Amino acid sequence: MIRVLFFASLREQLGTGEMRLDDFSGDIAALRESLCGERPEWRQYLASDPIRTALNQVLVGADATVADGDEVAFFPPVTGG
Amino acid sequence: MSMKTRNKILVCSEAFDAATEYRALQGGACSDGACAIFVGSVRDFNDGNDIRGLALEHYPGMTEKSLDGIVADARARWPLGRVSLLHRVGSMQINDEIVFVGVTSPHRQAAFAACQYIMDRLKTEAPFWKRETIHSDGVTKERWVEARDSDREAAGSWA
After folding, report:
1. B54 contacts: CB under 8 Å, gap ≥ 6
2. At what angle do helices B149-156 and B108-125 cross, to 10 degrees?
3. Chain A residue closest to B121 (CA)?
4. pLDDT at residue B1 above 60?
5. Could you tell me if B67 and B126 are in contact, meaning their C-beta atoms sit under 8 angstroms apart?
6. CA dihedral sign of residues A57, A59, A62, A63
7. Which chain B residues have any C-beta within 8 angstroms of a chain A C-beta?
8. How confident is the model at residue B2 (pLDDT cuts 50, 70, 90)?
């Protein structure tokens, strides 16, 4: 199982902050495609260029491999400080 | 002194007191003659809008890891004594202090540089998101703050 998290404006746009996926294998790009394939209305937000991705709480690129038990997060550019 | 007692890294939902944080930094750092501090507060004006309040969201777990990593990288670049890094989350009012960065060092250049480095990286890497309550034309509404190119450039300058 993979835990997928969404934060800030993206969480509001998608209408959810967390979901769990069974039986996924592939990289971050494939995970995003899978999510957008199931919910086409997500594509304009989730596939947007500035969206960042973290794998197990570390920033990664779209080619990072996701394994069972991982935590993946999608979020907009950060604005703290 | 262990690294654990030399670092104070905290994501907090309650207000902190900058004067208390300064005394804690300065008090235990007898061999460090320099202490540099940066404090960021909620301003009342942004992009032409009247700001009435601010909420800060974060990614529990990753945010703390990110701050730990930034402080560790600062220590690898400069000789630092104590480092304190505090960041508020949740609802805040105008003039509330959002972030406190304080470092001690034997040298002022190192203290200034490390303080700026920590802030520059925090602004572009640590998962925090600001949501402003703005008042415009008699209407109060909320909006997510947009990331700035100038912040990305500042962080990139340390690479």
Report:
1. B42, B91, B92, B93, B96, B98, B130, B131, B132, B133
2. 130
3. A81
4. no
5. yes
6. negative
7. 40, 56-59, 61-62, 65, 87, 98-99, 119, 122-131, 144-147
8. low
Helix (H) or strand (E) segment spanning residue A33? helix A28-38
Domain chopping of chain B, boundaries: 3-156
Give the model's pLDDT for residue B3: 56
Q: What topology does CATH give the domain A2-75?
A: Ubiquitin-like (UB roll) (3.10.20)
Q: How far is A75 from chain B (nearest CA, A)?
A: 9
- Which residues does B114 contact at the CB level (< 8 Å), separation at least 6? B36, B74, B77, B78, B80, B83, B103, B105
Tokens of B63: 């945010």
d(CA B159, CA B157): 6
E-strand ranges in B5-48 read 7-12, 34-41, 45-46
Q: Domain spanning B3-156: which superfamily?
A: Molybdopterin biosynthesis MoaE subunit (3.90.1170.40)
Q: What is the mean pLDDT of residues A19-24?
A: 93
| Pick from A9, A50, A80: CB nearest B126 | A80
Asked whether the beta carbons of residue B59 and residue A73 sit closer than 8 angstroms, the reply is: yes
Considering only alpha carbons, which residue of chain A is nearest residue B144? A9
> Is the predicted ipTM greater than 0.90, yes or no?
yes
Condensed to tens digits (0 to 9), the pLDDT of residues B95-141 reads 999 999 999 999 999 999 999 999 999 999 999 999 999 998 889 99
Query: Over pLDDT 70: what percentage of chain B?
Result: 95
Interchain contact, A5 vs B59, CB within 8 Å: yes
Query: What is the spatial distance between Cα A17 and Cα B48, in angstroms, rounded to a whole number?
Result: 31
